[in-house]
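Can't paste images in this forum, so I'm doing it all in text. The chain is below; anyone willing to post the predicted C-alpha cells underneath?
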Amino acid sequence: AEGLERALEGCVYSVGATARVDGFRGPALPVRECAARLLEEARRHRHISSPDHSRPAVAAVFGAERGGLHEEELALCDAAMSIPADPTFASLNLAMAVQIFTYEWRMAALEHK
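Text version of the structure:
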C-alpha cells in the first residue's frame, strides 16, 4: 500500500477496480459512472497535472492479476469501481478489466467533446 500511496500523491480523485465492494467505506460505482467521473475530474483539474503526465490529477487503480487490490489499497481510493458481471464469474482478469474501463473512458470522452 505504501507504493500506491506514493503513486497517488497529488491525485484529486482515484477509483479502485474491485469485484468486492462490500465493506468499502466510500461510494461503489459502476465502471461507466467511474470513467465519466474520472474524465470530469481530469478536465477540471488539468492544471495540476505535471506537463509530462507523470503526476496526473486522477487515477484508475487496478490490482494484481491473482488477487486484485488489497483492502488497504482500495481504502486509499475515493471510490470503488465495479464492472457488472455474472456473479458466478464476478472476478475478471486484469486485461479484461482495463479494456472495459478504457472503453468506457473513451465513450465518455466522445460524449463530452
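The chain has a mean pLDDT of 87. The longest helix spans residues 94-111.
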